[in-house]
Amino acid sequence: MPTFSSFVPPRRVLMGPGPSDVSPRVLEALSRPTIGHLDPAFISLMEEIKQLLRYAFQTENELTMPISGPGTAGMETCVVNLVEPGEKVIVCQNGVFGGRLKEMVKRCGGLVIPVDDPWGRAVDPEKVETALRAHPDTAVVAVVHAETSTGALSDVATIAALARNAGALSIVDAVTSLGGSELRTDDWGIDAVYSGTQKCLSVPPGLSPITLNDRAVAKVRGRKTPVQSWFMDLNLILGYWTGGAQRSYHHTAPINALYGLHEGLRVLAEEGIEKSWARHTANHHALRAGLESAGLTFAVPEAERLPQLNSILVPDVVDDAASRKALLERFGLEIGAGLGALAGKVWRIGLMGYASRRENIDLCVEAVETVVREAVTGMPHVQ
Amino acid sequence: MPTFSSFVPPRRVLMGPGPSDVSPRVLEALSRPTIGHLDPAFISLMEEIKQLLRYAFQTENELTMPISGPGTAGMETCVVNLVEPGEKVIVCQNGVFGGRLKEMVKRCGGLVIPVDDPWGRAVDPEKVETALRAHPDTAVVAVVHAETSTGALSDVATIAALARNAGALSIVDAVTSLGGSELRTDDWGIDAVYSGTQKCLSVPPGLSPITLNDRAVAKVRGRKTPVQSWFMDLNLILGYWTGGAQRSYHHTAPINALYGLHEGLRVLAEEGIEKSWARHTANHHALRAGLESAGLTFAVPEAERLPQLNSILVPDVVDDAASRKALLERFGLEIGAGLGALAGKVWRIGLMGYASRRENIDLCVEAVETVVREAVTGMPHVQ
Q: Is the ipTM of this complex over 0.95?
């Protein structure tokens, strides 16, 4: 039989595209004793999580809950419930995750109407407007709020309004934005939003909070075809999450992960969502000042930058992989590599949730400055 | 903004159909600091988890890994990857979970050939043989090893052999059996197995270990149609879990949940899988002796009983829901209600993993005896 030691993680500061550093309060909550998923005490916890998520999403939507899987499962849950075979779906793509949305729409029989923008730029709402005029029978418009693969922030308020005026539903990917960038689900009239826990909520990965308004729920309830996924069928999941005293079993909820989410959402509510947005922005400016002083350049135009995910051009003088390895091994600092079209071209530096702190900015600036200087001088910096 | 206290779970002994009591070692592991999903240290952890799971499944299969969702996600992953539209699938049903398999097969375009047995009985291999003769073009045979909804154990070794002789693949649901009942994936020639963490592994719910042999992987790799789920497409997931140094990103792995699984699998390996099976059987006999002394009757015939999930007929004198409430509130003891055809007729008493201990048997027998006696005498037992 295999014998391994208990796993002791190395000391890291997580400033990549996620997971971000998890608050000690959340880590402690994860280790509380497991109880049953139908226990009255757990049902109360679920109700509190729903209320806390409504606050985070800035919504009154009844259907607000965590999906029992990572952000990708939340994305697919929204797509397979809201798209019926043969329907037209405008998918905005300006990075990896718009591409993933397209693939999911195709796999459930939707017809993708692509609206493509360059990687590292925001989605252009005028292109969405043009696509809606060309395809007035569009059923759904899907767009990523904060494109984690590039660090670009898109104007989903405008895009959701365009969709609604054209009679289409909107799906917004808020995986990296929730808690870090202004997101007002109700005020902006977004019909469905999904997110993840491992970005600005600073909860470990594995859950995907979603919220759907009444228009979206009506579509799910009135589908002509069954949702192709049994696991993700909201008609069934709602029997458990909104069933009240008559809650019906669908799948066993991930109890301890939900303890962690509850605590992470409490941390957010204590700070206040607007203050959290402001902190992410302020820390972004501090990081920017430090990195620019060190001679580094941002990849995304200023007006379209995400505060919580900073894409920096990899300086010509350094070796991408070797530098990130040095940051990890010598400074315990994780930053992200470029993905897809930006692979090898950018570093992605996250400032998300609990990780968005002054001491992390100082560490990051010093560490990045060091590895770049060493590349220029050809000698390791004496520490 | 909503303000809630940090969640402190009530003290419970989990002897229902799962989740089961989680080992303190596993709870502690959950709270270790989160690291990145592409961190070299995490990649090493993933390799150890794969080896430990191979031991638990008794297999050498390369594709052995946890799916990032509960057992239901593992079930659907096996079905959507191994069934193509239009293919015939024999689904054995003797409880809730066979019914769930049928629904998933239908939703991905498979043609269900039902093999039904009464709830509370094992699947009859002769019926499977007859169905295979009537449908020689059957592509897949799906069967539940340990039917959690009834407490019946089926002979999946014989059923997998029948499938293989007929040229069909076998899918076995081992959610409740893994670690608690003899399961020999390779020796029995099973092509695909999925399980859950919250039963006899005594890890919180949220992950679904799966294993596929080369025949099953060849089918996934050689599909004529794309897997309908992007999230569950093993062709994509394997790029992350078996990609070696060139691991490609698919979704963010649930880091801390995997710390817990690693520790839970270490606990199993330290005990030894055969010893774990034997412990579950011995404790089942002890519980049986106690409950029968108290006048209670098992719902499943002796030869077909699961040691880790004991279905007891609800005595005529008691109120089902009120009695379970009394067990929970006065004894901190969670047992399970009947499901589906057995709702209101049985209690399901789990003895799984860390919960399968002598002290729990004593607590359960005393508590159940007490609430039954009180129902007979009409007065609460003085404690």
A: yes
